[in-house]
Every structure is written in C-alpha cells, then in structure tokens.
Amino acid sequence: MRKSHILGLVIFLVVVMFIGLTGSSFAQNKEEEFIIFHYWTAGGEKEAINALFEIYQKRNPGVKIVENPVAGGGGETMLAVLMSNLAAGIPPDSFQDHQGNQQKDYIDAGYLEAVDDIWSESNFEARINPMWVKTLKFDGHVYSVPINAHRTNWLWYNKKVLDEVGVKPPENYDELLEACKKIKEAKPEISPLALGTREKVWSTYLYDMVLLTTGGADFYEKANTGRIDFLNDPTFRQAIERYAALIPYIYPWHATKSWDEAGALLKTGEAAMYWMGDWILGYYLNIGMKPEVDFSVSAIPANIWMGHADTFPLPKSAPHPNSARDWILMCTTPEAQKAFNLIKGSVTIVNDVPPDVYPDPYRKRSANDLRTLRAVCDGFHGGMVTPAFGSELMDILTKFLVDQDVDAVIKSIAEAAERTKLAEACSWFWK
Amino acid sequence: MRYYKFQGFAFLIPILIIVSIFYGMIVWDLVAAFTHWQGLQPTWKFAGFYNFSRLFQLERFWINLRNNILWLVFFIVPTVLVGFITAYLLTNFKRGEAVLWQIFLFPMALSFIITGVLWAWMYDPSSGLINSILKMVGVNTSKFGWIALPKTAIYCMILSAFWQYLGFALVIYLGAIKGIPYEMVEAARVDGASHFTISFRIIFPNVGHATLICTTMLAITTVKVFDLVWVMTRGGPGVSTEILPYLMYRLTFESRDIGMGTATSIVILIVSAIMVIPYSLWALKKWVRI
Fold first, then answer.
1. Minimal CA–CA distance to A111: which of A312, A319, A316, A311?
2. What is the pLDDT of residues B103-135, one digit of tens each?
3. Which residue in B21, B117, B255 has the most chain A C-beta atoms within 10 A of its own C-beta, making it the best mutation to test that interface?
4. How far apart are CA A112 and CA A117, in angstroms?
5. Cα B19 from Cα B32, distance rounded (Å)
6. Could you tell me how many helices (H) and strands (E) chain A has, helices first?
7. A296 Cβ neighbours under 8 A, 6+ residues apart
8. Nearest chain B Cα distance for residue A395, angstroms
9. What homologous superfamily is domain A33-150+310-366 in, according to CATH?
10. Which residues pair with A376 in a beta bridge?
11. Same fold, A33-150+310-366 and A154-306+379-430
12. Which residues are within 8 A (CB) of B118 and not within 5 positions of it... i.e. 6 or more apart?
C-alpha cells in the first residue's frame, strides 16, 4: 500500500467518525419536533406526563414529541445533562424545573426567555395563588408556567396507632410534640415520627415546619431568604430548639431509609406519623393502604398551605420555539392541568378547576386550601433557599439529627448563609 | 523504518484526537478552578486561589479528606494482608483450590452498585440480615445502627469494599507466588522454617511486584468509591461517610458552585497522581526499560 493510500484511508476514517458524532444533529430539524427533558419516569408519573402529551398531540397533530433524547438523561442524571446542554448552547424546547432560586440560576445565566405574553394571554396571574407569582416573577418577568402544586405541610399518620393511644391528630407543633410523647409512653417499641434521610433533603422539610410553626409565614419567608440574624434571633433559636425536641421521637435509623421506605414504616407499624409531601399518597395507595382506614393526614399549621410546583420554562434559542410556546400555553389550560394532576397525585395550580374533581379527601382539601389560604413555598424544592445554601443546610441538619447540638447548628447555619451569600442571592424575592 | 513510523503515526491519529480531548478537559477543569464561576454561566474571570481557599475553609472538605485517608488505610492494608495470607494458604491446599478461587473471585464480578445495595440491606438496623441473626442468638441490637451511625458507617462501608476486592488481591498474589522458584520454599522447609517464617520472610519479600500492583490498584479504587457511597449512605449520616469525589459532585451539581467543584477535582487529581506515579515509574522501568 502506498503512503498516500494509507493517509487517505486514515483521513476517511476520521471524517466518518466526525460525521457519526455530529451527523445526527444535522439529520434533525426536518420535521417539526418538540424536545422535552423531564424525570417523570416512575409509575404514575409517566402516565401523568403521557396525558399531557396526548392533549398536546391533539393540538399539534404534526409535531413529533422527543422525550429525554440524551442517553442517561432521565432521573437524577437529567440535571447534569441539562446543565451541560444549556452551557453548550443546545437547549431542549422545555424541561422540568421548579421555581424560586431553583429557577433563578438559569435566568441569571441567561438561559431562559420570558413568557410574559403567555401569562397575559391566558390571564394566568389572576387564576393562581399570589404566592406563585411571587416565586415565579423575576424583575417583573416570568419565564415558565407551573403545572402542578404539591403540598408539603402534611402530617400523615397511622390511624389505628393514634386511635389506640387515644391522641387526636395534631394540628400544630405543640400537639405534635404532645402526640409524640404519648405514643412513646404507650408504645415504646414504635417510633412516633418516621423520617428517611438517605436523601438528606427531607431533613429540611422538618426545618421548614418548625420555622413556619414558630414564627409564622412572614418569619418563615424571611428566615429562608436570609433576612434574619441567624446567630441572635430568638425566634430562630426557639425554632431550632423545637426541632431538637422532636429528634428523640424520630425513627433512629433514618439515615438508612429513603423517603418511600420511611413512609412504609407507617404500614409495618414501626412508626406512627410521617411528615411528607402529598406524593406519598400515591405510594400508600400502591402498597395497599386504605385511606381513612389505615392512614389519614392533617396539615400543620392548618391555616397555611406550604408546597412547591413543577414548572416548564422556555429556554432561550429553543430549537422549536413555536412547539415550545404552544406546550407552555397548553399547560395554562384547566384541561391540561386537570388531566396531569389527577394522575400525578398533586393538585392544579389554577383555581378554576373545582376541588371536587379529586377522588380523595386529601387533595380536595389541598386544592381548597390553596385557593383560600395564605401559601408559602417550601425551602429546598420550592426554591425559597438557594441550591447552594440548601445543599449545606441538609448536611448541617442531618448532622444535627445525630448530635442534637443546638448552638452548633445555629452557628453552622449562620456560617453557611454567610458563605453562600443567602440574603444577597434571595433579594429578588423582596423586590 | 521511516515508512513504519509514518504509518504508525497516521493510524494513531483517531486515538490521539480522543486522548487530546480527554487532556483538554483536564486543562479546561484546571482553568475553571481558577475562575469566579458560581451558578450556571461561565464567567472566565481569573480568581487566583479563591476557590481553593474557600474549599480549604470548609470543615467538610477536611472530613472528606480524612475519610479518603481512612479508606486508604483501612481498605488497603487488610485487603492486601488477608489477600496474601489466603493466597499462601490456597497454594498449600492442594485440593479444591479452583473452587475456592472462584468463591473468592466471585464478588469481583459485581459492580459497586450491587455490592452497595446488597450490604445496605444486610446492615439495615431494623430488618437487615446482620441484626436479624444477632437477634436470633439473643443479642440486644437496639444500639447496633451500622451504617446509620456516624461512628461506624464508614468502617461498615469499607468492609463491604474489602469483601468485594479480596478476590482481586488473592488472584494477584496467587499468580505471584506461583512464579517463585519452588526450590527456595522447599529449602526453607527442609531447614525447618515455620509457615509464618516461610510466608513473611521468604515469599512476601519475593512478591513485592504483586504488592505494588495491589496497593496501587486498590488506592485508585478508594479514590473512586463514589458509587458505593451514593448507594449505601449518600454521604450520611451528616457528612460522615462523604469522600472527595462525592463532595465534588455535590458542589458542582447540587450547590451549582462550579468553581469550588472543579477545585475539588484538582485536589483529587493531585492525590491520585501522588498514588499512581510511583507505580507508573516502576512499571515503566520494569517493562519498557527506559
């Protein structure tokens, strides 16, 4: 073989390799598509997003829906893939996101485009709880539409255990602590409060609860946006002391349980109550627990709705902006909201879907409360705190769950807020 | 000769491209570690050692580094020692060697994910195998939290990795021991040396290359036990079982602090280099004879 032949062969191979790597993106764009990244892949969630796809397909018969087209782009890896795609300038048409500080990072980086026109076209702002506006509007602009509302200030309890011990379902912090004490006395072999911190984020849910029940909604919002003096604020100290007071009643091996495994402790009778968002309802129904027979739920505090939404933002230079805008517009309709939420286990953001469409009493109540009560966003998933602070907070709190050192935890939280510049990063919330 | 050199180089081009992308990413990482990059948008503003100084101020970083060192000590030493002793015993066991060999090697076929799930089940304090057995023999297990307690969690985790990698050390030592001239051992035996003397005075010094391979490979493993940590405890309780690669992931993707995340990765790169370079130099000397 001659030198030139071999060189030619090698160049040919290199060219083929590059075409293989990049060619797939050239081949696209011919037909209209809608590319979406989401991590609703589990049973129940998948069906819910499929219901949205069905409605979308009816509105846009010619458009091909492409879900998570990057290998390994589902579940927990979605975020990493999404971040690199956004940075590389190849965004999807829309993706699953939260609100508040969770979304603000994308906006700061200039990855999202405002959808103010879609909001005004669908009169969206007037149809939702003011809290959503507060956590979705950045400098007067909105960048996404929320699709569902998950309530997180729910205390699920094993009805039989509470009946046997003779405590009424707690509706505030004091009643909760009292119930814990009584259950521990009557049944020392079971843990009054279930918790799973294998995903450390659940430790922050209890933190939100004590902030909310100690200082009220305004204090809660101030604390989670860094507008208090963590070291010297007496209300904050009291909240942490209240957290500490609950720890002896928490399931001791929480570090080994995931959120659903911890939830199952109510079924096996190893725990009596569980502080968790309403997505656990679908799990309880799945494992064969009967509502109002095996379990029930109460809200703490009863006069506030706390929770978060999943949202669909519009990325800047989305490859198919028309498809994307129609998707987002569709998500504002009562029809799409209802179809999605009935299956997903959450409630609609929009107030014009009547609460009695839900088959279970819990969501009826959640939907009704969301229409009428003061609402706040939960800390981590709701994006009240920044991802950076939230990430540190969960480490601090899971350590606190073991050592119960109030002074140390206050100091650590103050330091973390300082280090991550929490107050500065959250100043948008107060504008 | 020139002919072959040219063709050889030409055929290497594709792999060179891939390798250069790989090294390019390391350079990119190094550059990013020295910028003010927090959040999702690259800033490319030079920040000096800002990220590193923030990283070194984190108490958590030092806990992570300590955990990495704990892994180095409590994973490598027992695995190498027990691997060597088992290999020595196996060479003396004339029968059933092949079967035992398979049994020890089997866990090697598993990934850390499976090992993690398996052992996390066994360690589960309320319904796990270990506590269930202890309960059966009448032990009060209410204090045995295994991976649920910050003090014991990391050792429990190291034990599961030890279980998985014992076979690896065993195979390396078996191969090395079989390469030793039989006369040497025989001569020692005739002189009346005990098993202990034979194994640690004669065989062990003669399988130095196996020890080097074993310790280096196991050291590299300790740097990348991310998956085991992820599956078993996610770094918990608190941050007691976190290791540097896990911290890197958390800082980058959860805190979205790319600057500090890349700074962590540079620290990992340096630590790994310190562990791998002596082995590489030795290997080059031995096999390439430079």
1. A316
2. 888 888 888 899 999 999 999 888 889 999 998
3. B255
4. 14
5. 20
6. 18, 12
7. A156, A157, A159, A169
8. 5
9. Periplasmic binding protein-like II (3.40.190.10)
10. A306
11. yes
12. B110, B160
Helix axes A321-331, A45-59, angle to 10 degrees: 120
CA–CA separation, A380 and A108 (whole Å): 18
CB atoms within 10 A of CB A388: 24
Q: Look at A3-12, A290-299, A374-383 and tell me which has the smallest mean pLDDT.
A: A3-12
| Residue A418 to chain B, least CA–CA distance (Å) | 12
Domain boundaries, chain A: 33-150+310-366, 154-306+379-430
Model's pTM, two decimal places? 0.83
- In whole angstroms, give the CA distance from residue A385 to residue A394: 12
User: Between vectors from CA A306 to CA A302 and to CA A307, what angle results, nearest 5°?
Assistant: 145
Mean pLDDT calculated for residue range B141-156: 88
Determine whether the interchain pair A106/B40 forms a contact, defined as Cβ–Cβ distance below 8 Å.
yes
pLDDT tens digit sequence for A309-350: 999 999 998 999 999 999 999 999 999 999 999 988 899 999
Distances (CA, A) of A260 to A199, A267, A411: 11, 11, 32
Beta carbons within 10 angstroms of residue A202's beta carbon? 24
Which amino acid appears at position A407 of this protein?
D
| Backbone φ, ψ for residue A122 (5° rounding) | -95, 10
**Closest Cα in chain B, distance from residue A336 (Å):** 31
- State the helix-helix crossing angle for B150-178 and B59-92, rounded to 10 degrees: 40
CB contact, 8 Å: B124 with chain A?
Answer: yes
- What is the rounded distance in angstroms from the CA atom of residue A180 to the CA atom of residue A312? 40
Asked whether the beta carbons of B249 and B265 are under 8 A apart, the reply is: no
ipTM reported for the complex, 2 dp:
0.77
- Could you give the C-alpha distances from B82 to B75, B76, B90, in angstroms and in order? 11, 10, 12
At residue A105, the pLDDT reads 86
Cα distance between residue B87 and residue B89, in whole Å? 5
Q: What percent of chain A is modeled with pLDDT above 90? A: 72
Burial string for B69-81 (b: 16+ CB within 10 Å, else e) reads ebbbebbbebbbe
Tell me A115's DSSP state. -
**Do the Cβ atoms of A87 and B3 come within 8 Å?**
no
Tell me which CATH code domain A154-306+379-430 carries.
3.40.190.10
Answer whether A252 sits within 8 Å of B233, measured CB to CB: no
At residue A309, the pLDDT reads 94
- Cβ count within 10 A of residue B14: 15
Say yes or no: domain B61-288 is CATH 1.10.3720.10. yes
| Residue A429 Cα distances to A129, A134, A163, A227, B78, angstroms | 16, 7, 43, 11, 54
| Residues A215-260: tens digit of each pLDDT | 999 999 999 999 999 999 999 999 999 999 999 999 999 988 889 8
Distances (CA, A) of A390 to A70, A208, A385, B22, B126: 28, 12, 6, 33, 30
Provide the percentage of residues in chain B whose pLDDT is more than 70.
Answer: 97
**Which pLDDT band holds residue A26 (cuts at 50, 70, 90)?**
very low
Phi-psi domain of A22 (left: phi exceeds 0; alpha: psi -120 through 50; beta: other): alpha
CB contact under 8 A, B253 and A253: no
